[in-house]
Write a structure and sequence with these properties.
The chain is α/β, with parallel strands linked by helices and about 800 residues long. It has 4 domains: about 300 residues, Alpha-Beta Barrel (7-stranded beta/alpha barrel); about 160 residues, no CATH class; about 120 residues, no CATH class; about 170 residues, no CATH class. About 50% of the residues lie in helices and about 15% in strands. It contains 31 helices and 20 strands. The longest helix is centred in the middle third of the chain and has 22 residues. The two termini are about 35 Å apart. About 45% of the residues are buried.
Length: about 800
């Protein structure tokens, strides 16, 4: 065999967590999903773990974990999020690597990645080393083995980075073909080089790159034109198209074992191209069935066929900027293409500001960090173990290895703040912050938030005021929509900042609307509520108590006393102060209760202000997700009144709507708006429940169709899919429960009549598994005369057909 195909997917999203909470807050631009991570997981990451092969009628005949048959890397920050929020998917990705080892000579297909997607040639040497060490350590912790290759963010490369990869024991990386400067055959040592700067390097062979210290490192150059067309063309319209294009890249003129490899963003398969994962799956199945070619990964190919060629690379080059790495430090002209009249002159000042802040943070760690660590830089290199596991045993092991002896509990908190300072000083170089068009865009605001967190930590560690000089540099960054990068920082980044007092206020305010367990967790904080007392006076409510708040990240702890007064609507005041003693708490509670019970709300507010002075908070200080939930509750009477008005209009004018529909006369918009609101509200409530009122759902669907109502079908489709997936998964756990299956069948009969675009990925997975594990036995029982089995088979067959799952013959 001398023809091989390797398809690589670079799966990555910029970290989206609030840097103070370590949790992703709601992102409205990802509608109807909570955030972009959730949306892309539904469209890409999940489907690739169970991709479908369809027959000629569009029915599922097989489900395949694509990750097990391709080469892939996942960003460590993305995998961390998946591990927390979609642990089964995270495990499927890990399992795929293990399965790939069975396919590819014991070599797993997963590659490591430089940790926080930093543009490596623009980083200093110290950060490059840490990024590689963190990427390797995170990979080892997740996949249970050492990585053989590493993906460089944006494939941005220089020789120093390759040498650091070699130092870490890595064997290879993947580059774009235009990153090769010149090549030659190894068996022509000392002969002439072939300059490929004006032509494409032959990507069907691995190349050795000589490092300055005399060692060498292997690079694979992916096939540029095919990769480009897969990412941005129409190749993913069919698996045959992909297969044919890959096979056409082989040539009988070559005298070496050829590897045709392509590399794209993994999000190409399902997010950028709907159902692209299915085209990939079918292509892989076609290649596996072709005896003239073999699927392989890079490490397995390298073991079988060591490099026969040598290359020199263009240093400071990348795959997504034809100007090298200028996209991440200059207005080079590379942009998203969405705003062609916008400039990116902000990139250079942003890079200047971040470089200045990095160096200032490094100086603080190098000087002040020695109070806590024997060597703060070695401690930073090892800190990734704590980032991945913040349990007490992990912390103890970290401190035992790197902290100075006799470190007090307060010293441990300070030490962790030094490490977090350094972590955020790296996260603020996440490449996406420069990639797009505007300094106030969501990705750039994210790295400005990391910078704000680093500035906050620096101040707490005695590093002085870094914000003034940082903001002054940002002032030089021109914005296309704001006055400057400084305004982007002050308007969008700083307001996201959180301190432990605000966490306490969040807990206190939200506790007024929801009874939490004794131990409450939000983001990276744990809260223990104590001594709560509630009073009511009509619509007004008073909550007092005590809470102990602790940061899982730094160990910082606050024992606080609080009081929350809600006088109705959005009028709410919360006071929070450090706990003094039981007598002080009791006196505060008695004072507030005395005036509250008299019904004197104005005096109650004055008493609250007197006890808590400047430490008062409002609904504005709730974190975004809970804020929306609480606001919806406090404004529920107003919302209910608005709904009642719309419902009255719809019901009173229903005969008019029918009449106008009957005579084919356009319906006035205010009638349609009321009808759409009522019908959509009713359908959503049905989908939110355990049992669907079929008659009422039928009526709502009929109204939507009859009057041509403009509903939010994207949100309805997500909620409808969630309902179906939930009940089919329940049936998978209790497959004898025909009632569950009946509910699914009835719901699907109705939901499929609306243009919802139901994503039934999870339900199909369950139905496919049952069709192979349970259906054959039930079918045999039914054939033998078992009437109950016969009913099961008949109903399951109907549901399987609705879910487009082909039953085995």
């Amino acid at each position: 065999m001398n023809r091989y195909v390797c398809i690589h997917g670079h799966f990555y999203q910029p970290p989206r967590e609030n840097p103070w909470l370590e949790e992703v807050e709601v992102q409205d631009s990802a509608h109807p999903y909570h955030d972009w991570n959730e949306r892309i997981t539904a469209e890409c990451y999940g489907p690739n773990s169970g991709s479908r092969i369809l027959d000629g009628d569009g029915f599922i005949v097989d489900i395949v974990n694509n990750y097990s048959k391709i080469s892939f890397n996942f960003g460590p920050t993305l995998l961390s999020w998946l591990d927390r929020h979609h642990p089964r998917l995270h495990q499927a990705i890990v399992d795929a690597d293990r399965l790939s080892m069975e396919h590819f000579d014991g070599h797993g297909s997963a590659l490591a990645q430089a940790y926080s997607h930093m543009i490596m040639p623009l980083a200093n040497r110290r950060d490059k080393i840490t990024q590689v060490k963190w990427g390797v350590a995170d990979f080892r912790a997740r996949f249970g083995r050492d990585p053989e290759g590493m993906w460089l963010p944006e494939t941005a490369v220089d020789l120093e980075t390759l040498a650091i990869l070699a130092d870490a024991g890595l064997r290879f990386t993947i580059l774009a073909p235009r990153q090769a400067a010149r090549v030659r055959r190894l068996d022509e040592s000392g002969g002439d080089w072939w300059d490929v700067s004006d032509a494409h390097v032959d990507p069907t062979a691995p190349y050795l790159v000589r490092l300055p210290d005399g060692r060498d490192f292997t690079v694979f150059f992916y096939d540029g034109p095919i990769s480009q067309d897969m990412a941005f063309g129409d190749m993913l319209e069919s698996g045959e198209t992909i297969r044919d294009r890959l096979m056409a890249a082989f040539s009988d003129d070559r005298d070496w074992p050829q590897i045709v490899s392509v590399a794209t963003d993994g999000e190409t398969y399902g997010h950028h191209h709907s159902y692209g994962e299915m085209a990939l799956t079918y292509c892989l199945s076609l290649l596996e069935a072709d005896p003239s070619v073999e699927l392989i990964n890079y490490a397995a190919y390298l073991d079988r066929h060591p490099p026969r060629h040598e290359a020199e690379i263009f240093e400071d080059s990348s795959w997504s900027c034809i100007h090298g790495v200028e996209r991440w430090r200059a207005d080079c002209g590379c942009n998203s293409g969405m705003h062609r009249d916008w400039g990116q002159g902000w990139r250079a000042p942003l890079r200047e500001a971040m470089d200045w802040l990095r160096d200032a943070c490094a100086a603080i760690l190098d000087k002040e960090g020695r109070r806590c660590f024997t060597d703060p830089w070695q401690a930073r290199d090892a800190y990734v173990a704590v980032v991945g596991n913040r349990e007490e045993a992990s912390l103890d092991a970290f401190f035992a290895a790197h902290a100075k002896k006799g470190l007090t509990p307060g010293g441990r908190i300070e030490a962790l703040k030094f490490m977090e300072l350094s972590r955020h000083a790296m996260l603020m170089f996440t490449s996406c912050g420069w990639f797009f068009d505007e300094v106030s865009g969501i990705e750039t605001v994210q790295i400005l938030q990391y910078a704000a967190r680093a500035i906050q930590l620096a101040g707490e560690l005695g590093g002085g005021d870094l914000e003034g000089p940082f903001a002054a540099i940002l002032e030089k960054a021109p914005s296309n929509v704001l006055s400057s990068g400084r305004e982007a920082y002050e308007r969008h980044a700083k307001p996201a900042a959180v301190d432990i007092m605000r966490v306490g206020a969040h807990f206190a305010i939200s506790s007024l609307f929801e009874a939490y367990d004794e131990h409450y967790a939000y983001g990276c904080y744990r809260v223990s509520g104590r001594d709560e007392k509630r009073e009511t006076a009509g619509r007004a409510r008073l909550l007092t108590g005590r809470a102990v708040i602790e940061s899982v990240i730094t160990g910082e702890r606050l024992d606080a006393t609080f009081a929350v007064l809600h006088v109705g609507g959005h009028n709410l005041t919360c006071g929070l102060r450090r706990y003094r003693d039981a007598a002080s708490l009791a006196a505060m509670e008695a004072d507030l209760r005395r005036v509250f019970e008299r019904g004197d709300l104005a005096e109650t507010i004055r008493a609250l202000d007197a006890h808590f002075e400047t430490h008062t908070f409002s609904l504005r200080d709730l974190f975004r997700d809970v804020q929306r939930k609480v606001v919806a509750e406090v404004l529920a009477p107003e919302f209910d009144a608005a709904e009642a008005m719309y419902r009255r209009i719809f019901e009173d004018d229903y005969p008019i709507l029918n009449f106008l529909h009957w005579i084919s006369m356009p319906v006035p918009r205010h009638f349609l708006d009321a009808a759409a609101f009522v019908v959509e509200t009713d359908i959503r409530r049905q989908l939110a429940g355990e049992v669907i009122d079929l008659e009422r759902l039928d009526g709502s669907i009929e109204d939507a169709k009859r009057f041509g109502l403009s509903l939010d079908y994207e949100r309805l489709g997500m909620e409808g899919a969630r309902w179906v997936n939930r009940f089919v998964e329940a049936f998978g756990e209790d497959f004898e429960n025909i009632a569950l299956l009946t509910n699914v069948k009835e719901a699907l009969d109705r939901l499929r009549t609306l243009p919802m675009g139901l994503n039934l990925f999870k339900a199909q997975n369950v139905a496919f598994e049952l069709s192979r594990s349970r259906y054959p036995g039930k079918r045999d029982e039914a054939a033998a005369g078992d009437e109950e089995a016969g009913r099961w088979v008949a109903l399951f067959s109907v549901v399987a057909e609705a879910l487009k799952v082909r039953l085995p013959q």
